[in-house]
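Milestone 3.1: sequence recovery, worked example.
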């Protein structure tokens, strides 16, 4: 079987994210990324000095529940006072979109590169944000099938605001069968078996997500941490209590940073909510933000179930794990400009953020369709451009020539009318002739569009090819990695695809560590 192509792409993002990636954001908003091996080694040594060898792992071991290569790598790091590279994501149906996988393997590649270059044992860790309560985001995934994009959605079986670790999954066999159908013959069906086993009707949304990620990632040495596990919550509690006690100071720092971001011409990624702290308290699994005025009171309650909001979570992670870097997507990079202000207000080290690797997977069948269309990936990114090119190719040359002739004739005739009117002391105002010109050319443009559409409709195979390519590479008008579930592609290509992903992520890691 031919191997798919995995095409590296710019990570993209909004103006603030791009400025941070290019090193153009103000230096006090982000922790400076080390440049070169010695700088990374120095940064890693600072992180190691903050942690007491294996003590961090002993407390978190139940939340990892790691096995195989992932467990061995964690143990080696803990035994030799090593470091970790982290990344993470909130739950998505059947593991979520492709970028979840790209994040995990970006963290693996950076951990491998740092360990190789610095000699310091390093492990990748995926933070599964099962404490998230956004069911709308967790409830769906998408697959490409027969030139269309099919959204697979599960119904809600729990209360609004319930964390995904507590949200009942219910029966998703119908959705699984739709995903399996999208995988086709699937010679590497083991991943489908793992998915079916993880998404048991008796599981919660968060538990199913964690179970599947562990089956997928642990054989590659990537450990998965369950954020809502009691062990994780216990380890995070001192930092969350500290954040509650300093809630007013944190809020002021966040307000000042938000103003600075806006004055610099950017938009703050996470809106500040006045009078609310960055800590949630859970009541029967439902989260609510703790008011700043109640911070000390809640902090004193030993029975309060606490968790962090998105701006506090990287700081919690940095406090409970020897994290040398967090591998982030574009939105996360943007909000790390606010995370730095929170860390400063708490008097703790700011976490280091680095960009993840971004890519599009071009399967052999899609490549063949692109070849038949005479196009490359960039040709289909802009709406309507590919259709226009298809129409250009479909419309016969004599029709194109005659259309251009009509435009030229109109131009000449109208210019003659303009001159004749002017000679008669402007028989009609200039705007009348100009208005007529616009109307007539608009009619010609409409005629051309109808001719192109009719010609395209006759190219049945080309139209089908373009629909299939769009569904596979730009589903719903978005980048593939942000929409499509990778499981069908992994089921079709197995280790061939994973080898390509690892190679691309390794190249990206090299660019992060290199001077």
């Amino acid at each position: 079987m031919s191997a798919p192509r995995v095409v590296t792409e710019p990570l993209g993002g909004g103006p603030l994210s791009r400025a941070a990636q290019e090193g153009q954001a103000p230096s006090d908003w982000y922790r400076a990324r080390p440049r070169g091996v010695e700088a990374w080694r120095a940064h890693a040594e600072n992180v190691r000095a903050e942690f007491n060898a294996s003590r961090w792992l002993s407390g978190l071991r139940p939340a990892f529940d790691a096995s195989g290569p992932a467990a061995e790598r964690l143990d080696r790091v803990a035994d030799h006072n090593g470091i970790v590279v982290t990344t993470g994501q909130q739950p998505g149906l059947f593991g979520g979109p492709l970028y979840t996988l790209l994040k995990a393997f970006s963290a693996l590649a950076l951990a491998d590169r740092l360990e190789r270059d610095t000699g310091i044992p390093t492990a990748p860790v995926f933070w599964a944000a099962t404490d998230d309560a956004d069911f709308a985001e967790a409830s769906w995934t998408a697959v490409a099938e027969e030139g269309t994009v099919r959204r697979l959605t599960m119904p809600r079986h729990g209360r609004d605001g319930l964390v995904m670790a507590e949200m009942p999954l219910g029966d998703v066999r119908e959705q699984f069968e739709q995903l399996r159908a999208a995988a086709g013959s699937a010679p590497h069906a083991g991943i489908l078996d793992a998915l079916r086993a993880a998404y048991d009707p008796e599981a919660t949304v968060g538990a199913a997500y964690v179970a599947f990620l562990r089956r997928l990632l642990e054989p590659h040495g990537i450990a998965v941490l369950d954020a809502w596990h009691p062990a994780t919550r216990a380890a995070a509690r001192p930092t969350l209590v500290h954040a509650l006690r300093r809630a007013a100071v944190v809020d002021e720092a966040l307000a000042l940073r938000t103003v600075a971001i806006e004055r610099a011409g950017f938009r703050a990624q996470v809106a500040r909510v006045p009078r609310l702290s960055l800590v949630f308290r859970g009541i029967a699994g439902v989260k609510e933000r703790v008011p700043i005025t109640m911070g000390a009171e809640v902090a004193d309650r030993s029975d309060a179930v606490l968790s962090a909001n998105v701006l506090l979570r990287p700081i919690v992670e940095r406090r409970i794990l020897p994290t040398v870097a967090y591998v982030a997507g574009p939105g996360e990079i943007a909000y790390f400009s606010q995370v730095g202000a929170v860390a400063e207000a708490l008097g703790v080290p700011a976490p280091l953020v680095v960009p993840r690797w971004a890519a599009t997977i071009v399967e052999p069948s899609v490549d063949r369709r692109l070849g038949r269309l005479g196009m490359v990936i960039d040709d289909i990114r802009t709406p309507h451009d590919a259709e226009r090119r298809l129409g250009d190719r479909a419309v016969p040359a004599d029709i194109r020539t005659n259309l251009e002739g009509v435009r030229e004739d109109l131009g000449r005739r109208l210019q003659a009318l303009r001159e004749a009117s002017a000679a008669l002391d402007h028989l009609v105002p200039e705007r009348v002739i100009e208005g007529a010109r616009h109307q007539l050319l608009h009619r010609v443009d409409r005629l051309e569009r109808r001719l192109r559409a009719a010609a395209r409709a006759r190219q049945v195979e080309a139209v089908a090819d373009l629909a299939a390519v769009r569904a596979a590479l730009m589903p719903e008008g978005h980048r593939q990695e942000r929409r499509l579930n990778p499981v069908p592609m992994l089921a079709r290509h197995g280790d061939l695809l994973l080898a390509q992903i690892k190679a691309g992520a390794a190249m990206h890691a090299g660019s992060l560590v290199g001077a």
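The radius of gyration is 28 Å. The longest helix spans residues 430-458.
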